[in-house]
Every structure is written in C-alpha cells, then in structure tokens.
Amino acid sequence: MRVLAAMSGGVDSAVAAARAVDAGHEVVGVHLALARNPQTLRAGARGCCTIEDAGDARRVADILGIPFYVWDLAERFQQDVIDDFVAEYKIGRTPNPCVRCNQKIKFAALLDKAVALGFDAVSTGHYAQMLDGPHGPELHRAVDMGKDQSYVLAVLPPDRLARSLFPLGDTRKEDVRIEAAERGLRVASKPDSHDICFISDGDTQGFLAKRLGEKPGPIVDSEGQQLGEHSGAYGFTVGQRRGLAIGTPAADGRPRYVLSIEPVSNTVVVGSAEELKVRAITGAEATWCAPVPEPGAAVSVQVRAHGREVPARVVSLGSSTGPGSGAGSLQTLPATVHVELDEPISGVATGQTLVLYRGTQVIGSSTISATA
C-alpha cells in the first residue's frame, strides 16, 4: 500500500512513519508548513510548524530511508483554522482548533491531495485505534488513555477514516519514546507540542485582542445586575473563573464563573458554580463514525479533548437531506443530536465538540449549539 506519512517533527509521527515502513508499505514522508512566516517563530515553539520541526522531520525521513517533502498549506490553515478560530470567538463561541485542523487540514486538504497523487492512505502519530467491525473500520480510543486522541478525530466520516492509519494506537507514550531512541531518532526526548500551535506564547486573549480590538461591555450576574466591565467578550469562555475583574463580591462570598457570552449585546454573564452545571446538550453539524444510535440509547459523552467521559442518553436526533449512495438519490442524514446527562458537568460552551462513545468506540461528533 502506498502511504503518505504526515511528519510533524515530533516523536509520535516519527515512530508512526517508521512502523508504516516496517509494515511493508511504500512510504513517503511529508511535513506540513502551516505558518506563513515560520522563521518568525521562536525555537521550541508550542506548535508543529517551525523550521526546527521541519528539519527534525527531514532527519527522521533520512534515517528511515524514505522520500521527504514539505507541503505549504499555510493559506488553507489560515482560512480553515486561524480565521475560523477568531470568527468563533467573535460570536461568543469556544472552538477547538485541533479538531478543526484534523477535519480541514490533515484529513481533508492533506488526504485529498494524497489520494489525487495515488496514495492509498495517510499515516499520522495520533493516539487512536482503527479496528475491524461488522460495519467496516471502527474508530476506538487508544490503549494509552492519558494520550488518547480519538476525541479530536471524531469529526472524520467513515470514508476518511478508511484511508487513515494510526500506528500508535496500541502503544503507550513511554514505549514510543523508548522505541524512538532504539531506532536512533534524536526526537526521542523532544517535548510534546501543547496548547494552541499558532499562539506560541500561550496568550490567547492577547492574540484575539490584536485581531478583534477592544470592545468594552458589561459583566452582569444572572439577574442582569451589572457588576463590572470587560474590554472584549471574546476574552472569556464559559466556566472561566480567573480574570473577571469584578470588584463586588458575591453575596455568599463564593467564586463567580462565566455562565454565558452574549455577542449581540456584548455582555458577559457570571454566576455561581451551581448555575454553571449542565444536564443536557444539543449538538449540530453531526458527523457519524458508526451506525447512528436510536433515541433512548445509552452512550457516554465527552466535551473536551482531555475531559472526563460522562454517561448519557440520546433523547432525539434532527435530520437533513443529503446525497444518498445511489446515483442521484437522497438519504436522510441525522444532523443534530440532543443528549441528557446522567450527571451534570460544568463549563460547557457552545462551539465545543460533543463526542459520543459506545464503550471505547467513537459513535460520532457534533458542534455544541445549546445547553440546559
């Protein structure tokens, strides 16, 4: 099989590429240049698109004896990830750029280009498992739950998953580093990338302020009483406690949290920890990786990349009309999902990704549009 190995310059993608070679595939390595000006990023930046990273990936490819290329996807990354990130915050939502990058860049732009060039699949260093099931390939959690990345891959439909290889899904991270060292790969001890790759200093609020400017507005409690003023609602997210700059303490002396962000009135609403709890979630733009669950089905849900899994029940599904499998045919595609949680969770924001699981298997995902 001809495999295009996405090589970020880190240890995970390096070992994944090596394993693809060991499996007997015809492997070609590619590094995605995602920054418009990578030379402006400091060495050791949090992301995976620096010149340093490209050099690390090239050295690994040389050791593995595979061809290596750098593909410039900076424009696509700017439009589909960075611009989307800013636009979502502007309307009061909290996006996950890693989910969007996997959906639009690594398994859309990259995979489409790979297929057009005659490759059969794309290999990455994600920690997730593809297993054979009665209905075809199934996406499952990784063996190493501490590194599991099935959450950010849940936006991939079955046709894209069928062309995806995740060689590290059955391995723990510490063993990946040991293997890299044994293979003579100097990235074996390279630190993991973290946080948002295109915000190298970690200052998300400052990043957004430069692009959206100051826009003062009120901070109010759940009854509408003004408690303070903010310089931009985009600088807040649901569940936030620190940085509220409210001079008046709560009547009970307990901390306040951001409950909601209202972009039209430019208002940030705060309240108690109890008011922050969510017991039902509605998601839109659903993608299904497995047979769609019936209303009433027991599932588990996750709303953050490293958040806890919560038991839930599918209450209802909404539908839209889309292309069917036959020529010119149409089929009904579930586009929304509403779940009720067995136990409340806090800090759930619109724009986040809701992922449904059945055991370790990913059922599907949607973008959170409402909570209750």
TrEMBL record:
Domain tRNA-specific 2-thiouridylase MnmA-like central, first and last residues per copy: 206-272
Subcellular location: Cytoplasm
Enzyme superclass (EC): transferase
Major localization listed first in the record, in broad terms: cytoplasm
Region (Interaction with tRNA): 147-149
Domain tRNA-specific 2-thiouridylase MnmA-like C-terminal: 335-368
Name this protein carries in UniProt: tRNA-specific 2-thiouridylase MnmA
Keyword tRNA processing: yes
Family: Belongs to the MnmA/TRMU family.
Keywords: ATP-binding, Cytoplasm, Disulfide bond, Nucleotide-binding, RNA-binding, Transferase, tRNA processing, tRNA-binding
Physiological role: Catalyzes the 2-thiolation of uridine at the wobble position (U34) of tRNA, leading to the formation of s(2)U34.
Species, as recorded: Kineosporia succinea
Keyword RNA-binding: yes
Residues engaged in binding ATP: A6, M7, S8, G9, G10, V11, D12, S13, L32, G125
Coiled-coil regions listed: none
Taxonomic placement: Bacteria, Bacillati, Actinomycetota, Actinomycetes, Kineosporiales
CDD domains per the UniProt record, alphabetical: MnmA_TRMU-like
Top-level taxonomic group: Bacteria
SUPFAM superfamilies assigned: Adenine nucleotide alpha hydrolases-like
GO MF annotation, one: transferase activity
EC number, UniProt record: 2.8.1.13
